[in-house]
Amino acid sequence: MDIGFLLLVVAITIPFAILAFGLNWKALQHKDERLQLLLKRAGIEQTQQKKIQKSLYEINRSKTYLRLMSWLKKAGITEQIAIYQLVAAEVFLLMASSYLIVTRLHSMDSKLFVITALLPLFPIAYVIIRKQKRQEKMRKQFPEMLDALVRALHSGYGIDGGLNMIANEFPQPLGQEMKEVTRQLALGINMREILREFQSRVELQEAQFFVVTLIIQRETGGQLAAILSELSRLMRRREVFQAKLRTMTAESRFTAIFIGSAPLLYLAYKYLFDPKSMQFFLSDPLGQKMLYVSLILIGTGTILLKKMLRIRF
User: Fold this and answer.
1) Nearest-5° angle of CA 248, CA 249, CA 252?
2) Cis, peptide link before residue 173, omega less than 30° from 0
3) How far apart are CA 304 and CA 78, in angstroms?
4) Average pLDDT value for residue range 207-213
5) What is the pLDDT of residues 174-199, one digit of tens each?
6) Do 127 and 46 reside in the same domain of the chain?
7) Is 126 contained in some domain?
8) Same-domain pairing of 50 and 81
9) Mean residue pLDDT across the chain
10) Domain that holds residue 74
């Protein structure tokens, strides 16, 4: 692999990394200064201040762990064995990638270097894809869940009993989320807090509508069965409208995908099958600048096309 090309990439990346680190460090310093000033105004001694700051650091570290576990939970990865396997795979790939880059850098070509550098991203991509598929499946299940809840209410069940019935009979992944809701209800947790946590776990507009409906009904009253039935009807109509919209915009979306991907596919083809024609862009300083500018413009254009075709409803 061309060491000069690698050094150029590192030289371009390092200033942005240093800038991000500096801004984050400055924000943390400002936060610590404000905390120290607040503790001094409260008349707390220096030794006690250090204990409080240490406790806050432990809390922040726990929050990072909780955010990671919440992210895995949204992907349906809840069993300890699966979590350990995923973490072990990430650590192994990270160590293997680092070892190969450090020890075999001089004998690597560009293609092998890129593949090796991307190895640690595979477990992360797996979690992201699994999370998206799980959310899409829950979105399709939501109208059916609302219909089942309406039938339970018409049969004489209360809202708690209806949720418990859905938790026991509804398939995953939405049934699993409902089991968590009923478990928290059995522990005596406030319904509003349970619904808010359910909304944060599911991250769907349908869940937001459902949560707001239940909270308003519990505080103001009303015919919950009729409201949920109308909500289910609106969700189904929204699904039909979304399918029609995808059909009507299929040509435009294909054109945008082709325009955005054609230059990259052409560059990849030339790099793999005609590498001599790419030497100017990989070895010459002017060619490298032209390549970087072109990639930035292609990426910017792709993002703009994606935003132009994104219709929110």
Assistant:
1) 135
2) yes
3) 37
4) 84
5) 888 888 888 888 888 888 888 888 88
6) yes
7) yes
8) yes
9) 79
10) 3-132
